[in-house]
């Protein structure tokens, strides 16, 4: 069975891009959706390298307006136009992002070949910013030097799974299959009522993904994302540099793990490492003193849950 | 003898960056100067890969406000700050560039760690925009879909070279050496006047570099850059696609060569190739039907003259 959640890390390093160390960007696959989260410089090239189809991206979520999280956005928007995209694209991000983009489009005398929409954010409380039949996206207010949001992607409970053999044995017409998947009982021609549970399986439990970068340690995050399948939490520093967290608005690996523990998530993914560190395994070791299931993001890594 | 001119191609492809095909940016070394010309997305990483010292770049010249020529600029400006640069940086480019940069700095609540100056351009005639004791930089008005300038970098004539052996044989005190290099005659203690030409060599002829991208064929360029040591002229298309030049504001390899011929330049460098072409040698072959000394730019190539 294909995974319900996949996370492709395009870049996961803090601050200035280095040679082969990309700034933040990732692609979340959740059911039929493909969401781009943050968009550091070079993201469009990373999308190509990781063979992500540009046309599948219809929503881009920007956490905050520091360059290592959005300097690649204008390039993505422009390239989509060069490719003569027609499908709408919606950008979610802090208030001001629309002005940045429209000013540059105006000065380049450029227009997008597709409808470009914006949802600018300024609330300091969680708000649902996207919802359709399969997924809800809610902001996760973060604690950083500038206004910043993480994003909580929650799959909705899917339809029940039809036990096709039982349905065929009972001669149920396939015209009823959708009703059954939606939980309905069935009355056969002889009047027998078939309980829905007798001809269906429970759906897969819905999955969820919490993206939290950049942020200082903020316990309220754990309250909001209880039981998430996976949490990506920034870990810019090791505990040995904890004194740098307050002035920079970042977290240590240990603090990220504390959020994972308190939120009882299934998996913790660490990223946004300061480039001062050479051995990323130290982040995993530090986090595992608090929380067991820890994964290290790296450029090009794909996680599936 | 070290070259007076060096051109490091960081990127030379048109439109959207591809994997291993960078958009436009190059570094000109001229005497003690290192100028950055255009700054497509990913330029800061290319600078690192090509081992260009960030601190040596004090002036950045942007031709026009299409993304493939300036989407890397915010990243460069920001990274210079992260590196705690203190030396001033001046940006030359079309009117509007200052607003784009200051808006993004404001929204990221960022300040540069160094003085950031702007020289915004809007004249449609050539104008001297930088001058010091060794070099003059003049705009080259181009013909593109948006307001665009090339840049003409002209070395000034240097001091005369002292014939040190003759000077020592004549017992000339080294206190006079600077005067001699600047062309002065010398009167010896016995009253003999030594003609400057007898104890000096001519200085190296001054060199010059004309950067012209993006532009449609514009004969006036040749008039302005007569005798340039090297001309970088865009060649987005081959002659077989000449019909695309007018709607896009670009040139063919043959048209670039015609400018080189009419301007009697020493060398023609072609670049800004459309990514539709796989065999760049065709550009060289086409240009050489008009002008002999043709070089092909490619990412990472260094030319010295």
Question: What do you see in this structure?
Answer:
The structure is a homodimer of 305-residue chains. Chain A is an alpha/beta fold and 305 residues long. Chain A has two domains: 5-158 and 204-304, Metallo-beta-lactamase, Chain A (4-Layer Sandwich), CATH 3.60.15; 161-201, no CATH class. In chain A, 23% of the residues lie in helices and 28% in strands. Chain A is built from ten helices and 18 strands. Chain A has helices spanning 43-49, 67-70, 73-82, 97-107, 164-169, 177-181, 220-224, 245-248, 253-263, 281-288; strands at 5-11, 25-30, 33-39, 57-61, 89-94, 116-121, 128-131, 135-141, 149-155, 161-162, 186-187, 193-194, 200-201, 208-212, 230-234, 267-271, 294-296, 302-304. Chain A has a seven-stranded mixed beta sheet with strand order 6-5-4-3-2-1-18. Chain A has a seven-stranded mixed beta sheet with strand order 7-8-9-14-15-16-17, covered by helices on one side. Chain A has a two-stranded antiparallel sheet with strand order 10-13. In chain A, strand 5 (89-94), helix 4 (97-107) and strand 6 (116-121) form a beta-alpha-beta unit. In chain A, helix 9 (253-263) packs across helix 10 (281-288). Chain A is globular. Chain A starts with a strand and ends with a strand. The model of chain A has no long low-confidence stretch (mean pLDDT 95). Chain A binds chain B through residues 15-19, 41-42, 44-45, 48-49, 65-67, 71-72, 74-75, 78-79, 82-83, 94, 96-97, 99-100, 103-104, 107-110, 145-146, and chain B through 15-19, 41-42, 44-45, 48-49, 65-67, 71-72, 74-75, 78-79, 82-83, 94, 96-97, 99-100, 103-104, 107-110, 145-146.
